[in-house]
Every structure is written in structure tokens, then in C-alpha cells.
Amino acid sequence: MRPEITTNYISMHRVAISLLLLVISSISVYSQTFDEYYKIALENNPEVKAKYYQFEAALERVNKVNSLPDPTLSFGYFISPVETRVGPQRAKISLSQMFPWFGTLKAKGDAAAIAADAQFLEFQNAKSLLYQKLAVYYYPIYELDKKISLLEENISLLKSYKKIAQIKFENGKVPLVDVLRTDLLINKSETEIEILKNQEAPLRAGFNSIMDWPVDTTFQVSDTVIISENDVKLISDSTFYNHSKIKSLELQAAASEAEIAAIEAQSKPGFGVGLDYVIVDKASMPVEDSGKDVIMPMVSISLPIFGGKYKAAKNEARAMSNSYKEMRQQAINDFQSAYYMSKFELTKVQDKLDLYQKQISHLKQMLNLQYRSYANNSENFEELLRIQQELLDYQILQLEVIKEYKIAEAELDYYLGNNLDTATE
Fold it and tell me: Coiled coil: which residue ranges (predicted)?
């Protein structure tokens, strides 16, 4: 009895450990849809976070440039006291504050505020661009996973054909070559599976890097992908005017122009007010007001006589403004060109999908008929395998164009600024 109890206990213990390991392993495995992964990436991606911190820094700069310069407090001690009628001067304390020309702080604040708005749009653009970057890894992984599943199903089907061929060969109804043909195709599919698995490893590493996960993190892609059939409408240049990238460049140009106004205000005189307090000791001879400290208000003015630096600064800001305007126009041109290319890709892929779906449907019918013919008459086994292989080829092509479609769709969404709606649902 004891050996049985011990054996059962060990068996139960092993089951418990296996279940525990399964639970632990499942914790490190992610299984989400593409949009769910995208939301996670928005929170984790270092590039997006960096753009947000740059926006925060730009906001703080608005507060910085709106502030007055720090007041100056100085203290001086007379090593050799200066003798005056009321006594020797021992020390002097000075406090002063400079004020820029009227409107200078506002002009600098306006320029900084516009630059902060531009930086926020750069952050928005990084979020939108992340959608496209993620798609470049996600959908090829989906394609490879589905290809591997197809090949595994193909191997199972070929093995079933092989069993039928072996039985017919043993009964003398078919030649041995029918059995050997299935072995060749099985070996081919097994090799292709290994190649696909090796091909998938760098894609998964790239996906993990975007998600800011350890490179060996295990995750699963969705088992289904939805292909929308919405027509892509024609657009004009103005379609892109509100895109975050275009608006960002537009605001950066405006910030440079606002900076010119701030530089012009800085080139005007600044004003300062201050107060000197002089500590005076008692006079050696009794006099009126002996030892009375001295209080002296002061007013100062800065003289911006070296105008060359201000002229250079304005020229620099003007050149940057022109640069941003040209970059904006080039971005619009690039977006328009890329839009039409993505639109063409979507149209091409839709045509291919329609064709492949029809071909797959016909081949399945042909395969069913050919299988019945071989099962009944033991003829045309080679044709059966050919149809099976052709069906597999079209199913693989279908997966490839689905991947191309989803990547082109993500690119189109980026150019039209559509994918941020998905992130904020």
C-alpha cells in the first residue's frame, strides 16, 4: 500500500508543480490585439516618452523666459576706511534689479509658448508614427505564424495521404513512387517551417524593442486580422494641413518669427533700480550726524550699442523660419506622394485578395474531387499532390498580401492622421 500512496503523492506533486509552472509561464506571455499592443507601446516606448519630456521641458521654458533677471546683492568692506565729515565708511551693501524694455518678457514668452505647442505636436506625431512602426513588425509575425500553421496542417494532410498510398502499395494497386512523393513534400514543409521560425526571431526582437520589453519576451499575436473594404477617397494638399507633423513645422516657423520680435525688444535699453547702504562709524570729533549711515537710491540703464549681435540673431531666427516653411512644404509633398503609393498598394492588394480567395475556393473543390478519385480508382496521385501544393501556395500568397495590406493601411492612417483615434478610445 505504501508504494502506491508514495507513487500517487509524487504524481500529484508533479501535476501541482506543472500547473504552477504553467501559471508562472503564462504571466510572462502577452496575448493582445494590435490596438491593445499599441496602447501598451504608447506608455512604454522610449521615443514617445522622450518627446513628451521634451514637451514638458518646453513648457518650463515658457516660465523661465517670462521671469525677470535675478536681483543683485553685493557687499563691500573698506580695508582702509574712507574718512568723511560724519565718520569713516566701513562697509557698503548694494541691492539692484534690472528690467528689460517694455514688452520684452511678453515677446519672449509668446515665442516660447508657440515652440511648446510645436513640441506637443511633435509628441503627437511620435505617437501616430509609432502605430506605423509597430505594424511593420506585428503583421509579418502574424503572417509567419499563420504560414507555420498552414505548413503543419499540410504535413498532417500529407501523412494521411501517405498512409492511403502505403495501403494501396501493399495491396499492389499503386507504385512505391506514390509513397516517396509524399515523403519529399513532407520534408520540404518541415524545412520551410524551420526557416520561418528562424525568420520570425528578429521580428519578435524588433517588436519587443518598440514595446520596451526584454528582447526575449514571449507574446502572441491575434489569430485573426480584419480586412476593411472601405474605399480610399482622393485627397488634396489641404488634407494634410492639420497633420501633427505639418502643424508642428508650421508652429516652429511661427516661433522663429516670434523670436525676431523678442530680439528686437531685447535690442532696446534696459532699466535698473537699486539701493546702496553705507555703514559709517562715529567721527573722531563730535560733529552733527556723527556715525549716520548713508542711504543712496540708484537708477541705471543698459546701452545696447553693439547691435551686430542682435542683427545676427534676427537673421538666424529669420533663416530658421524660412527653413521650417520649406520643410513643411516638403513634408506635404512627401505625404501626398506616399499617400498615393499606399493607396495603390491597398487597391492592388484588394484585387489580389479577391483573386486568391476565388482560386482557393476552386482548388478546394478540385482537391476534394481528386481525393475521391484516387481513393476509389488509385489513379493520378501525382495530380492530387500537385493540387494540394497549389492550394498551399495560394494560401501562403493570401497571407502575404494580408500582411502587405495591413502595413499599407497603417501607413495610410499615419498620413491621414487617423490612428490616434484608436489610441484614445
Answer: 310-366
Mark whether 120 and 189 lie in a shared domain: yes
Q: What angle do CA 50, 51, 57 make, to 5 degrees?
A: 90
If asked whether residues 348 and 276 sit together in one domain, one would say no
Candidates 144, 156, 157, 145; CA nearest to 364 is 157
> In this structure, is residue 22 part of a structural domain?
no
**Which segments of 251-401 are extended strands (E)?**
271-280, 294-301
Is the residue at 405 inside a domain?
A: yes
Same domain membership, residue 290 and residue 352: no
Claim: this prediction has a pTM higher than 0.85: no
Q: Is the dihedral of CA 358, 359, 360, 363 positive or negative?
A: positive
- pLDDT tens per residue across span 134-146: 999 999 999 999 9
Residue 161, number of CB atoms within 10 A of its CB: 21
Amino acid residing at 84: T
260 part of a folded domain: yes
Residues 6+ apart with CB under 8 A from 415: 240, 243, 335, 338, 339, 342
Q: Quick one: 151 and 85 in the same domain?
A: no
Residue 86 structural domain: 70-99+269-303
